[in-house]
Amino acid sequence: MSDLTSHDEGYGSTARRGCPFHDIRQRLRRVGLRPTRQRVSLGWVLFARGDRHISAEMLYEEAMKEKIPVSLATIYNTLHQFTQAGLL
Fold this sequence. Notes:
- By secondary structure, this protein is mainly alpha-helical.
- The chain contains five helices and no strands.
- It has a single domain (6-84), classed as Arc Repressor Mutant, subunit A.
- 17% of the residues are buried.
């Protein structure tokens, strides 16, 4: 990716090219969303398995299985933000 900056490289110890979390952070930034820990984690759960239809409740269950601390309200808010930004 050509839009990497020193700030991006310093965001966590796993921020490297080819890292799915780094890719999700970049994707969020490109659409104007701040890459919070919860957005990045939920983005990973959503996008890692390819295109699929998923409900907020299903995403919540998957997040719980992955030990991602998030409320159902945050899931709904994040899905709305991702939709408004054109990610979904």
